[in-house]
Amino acid sequence: MIFVTGGAGFIGANFVLNWLARGKEPVTTLDKLTYAGRIENLATVKDHPNHTFVQADINDAATLGALLHRDRPRAIIHFAAETHVDRSIQSPAVFAETNVQGTFRLLEAARGYWITLSDADREAFRFIHISTDEVFGSLTATAPSFTEQSPYAPNSPYSASKAAADHFARAYFQTYGFPTMIVRGSNTYGPRQYPEKLIPRTIARALQEQHVPIYGNGSNIRDWLYVDDFCAAVTAALAHGKPGESYNIGGMSERANIDIVTWILTRLDKLSPRKSGQSYTALLTFVANRAGHDFRYSVATYKSQYQLGWTPQTALPAGLAATIEWFLNHPEGLETDDEDEEWT
Questions:
Q1: Is 82 a known active-site residue?
Q2: What does CATH list as the number for 2-192+225-251+297-313?
Q3: Active-site option among 31, 86, 133, 294
Q4: Per-residue pLDDT tens for 88-107?
Q5: Which of 43, 46, 249, 253 could be cross-linked to 224 through a Cys-Cys bond (beta carbons 3.0 to 4.6 Å apart)?
Q6: Nearest alpha-carbon partner for 158 in 316, 310, 36
Q7: What is the pLDDT of residue 321?
């Protein structure tokens, strides 16, 4: 069986659902259920015979150790993290606690379990740490994409915390031989994403007839990766990845934020027209830029294609259309637990 942390969050939940839908082996899902970890994301597998959910904190070393020795997984997929850049600017300590200390606690618990395994089981065991392209910092419009060898240059407390976690994961391989891998995703989107992020935030605010904010002039560029493609990449890393290696996972779909937002608003004009008859694009509002806002992210994926046999399968228009349709059919997914007015 496998062990998934952060499995009630956006990417983690989609991974668990995809894994079980493909008839894979049993999975134990651990999640603290913070604001972005929603047990509703796992509602369809609540009674699945191959799924066990545990509400717990990755900083709880005793619980981690007990669960690992009880369930005896062959792999750990570590999604659990604080991920919202704006929140990291406001409350950086939470990101250090979860992303850095929590990853360390999990690595220690996992290593303690790993050393009890037989030689064959130790050889087969894998620890996949889920990271982000933001650890590399920002690119100019014409600079070549980041590779796995690009130097780290994080520009926000969030990306700094993920960079530190990456370094711990790598160090545990170098020092102890503990079989870690790092999988870095680009801007991931899709069903079940918490509506503080750009795409679901745009959908939510448009449907609520509120202004749709966008930082600066909207020219910041991101590489957009559909969540099912990212889940497939993680599965491929588990099957074919090499311990000690890192893999960049991108959607090969670089777009400026203004283009993404305009596409969504125009699509909503057709699917859920405003009562006023006006286009949703009239709600678009430019706001002051975020502090330290990275201009562009882009990752080269040839290593993942060659070593993992993975390429993204979902074209951006198709992924955006599927995402909008999902949220229109699941309006509860656009509800937030606070009155926060920040966005990415």
A1: no
A2: 3.40.50.720
A3: 133
A4: 999 999 999 999 999 999 99
A5: 253
A6: 36
A7: 98
Q: How many Å apart are CA 313 and CA 198, to the nearest integer?
A: 22
How far apart are alpha carbons 243 and 221 in whole angstroms? 32
SS3 76: strand
Cβ-based burial of 21 (10 A; exposed 0-12, middle 13-18, buried ≥19): exposed
Q: How far apart are CA 271 and CA 265, in angstroms?
A: 10
Alpha carbons 336 and 281: distance in angstroms, whole number: 23
Q: Is 259 a catalytic residue?
A: no
Beta bridge partner(s), residue 180: 127
What does the domain layout of the chain look like in residue ranges? 2-192+225-251+297-313
Mean pLDDT across the stretch 56-60?
98
Q: What pTM, to 2 d.p., does this model score?
A: 0.96
Task: Based on the residue annotation, tell me whether 223 is a catalytic residue of this protein.
Answer: no
Q: 277 φ, ψ to 5°?
A: 85, -10
Of these residues, 31, 86, 134, 223, which one is catalytic?
134
Q: What is the mean pLDDT of the chain?
A: 96
Q: Is the pLDDT of residue 173 over 90?
A: yes
Degrees to nearest 5, angle at CA 82 with 108 and 175: 25
Kindly name the residue from 31, 57, 82, 158 that is annotated as catalytic: 158
Q: Report the relative pairing of strands 51-55 and 254-256 from DSSP bridges.
A: unpaired
Phi-psi region of 314 (alpha: psi -120 to 50; beta: other; left: phi over 0): beta
CA distances from 128 to 48, 73, 131 (A): 24, 13, 9
DSSP letter (8 states) at residue 306: I
Q: Which two tokens stand for residue 250?
A: 């991108």
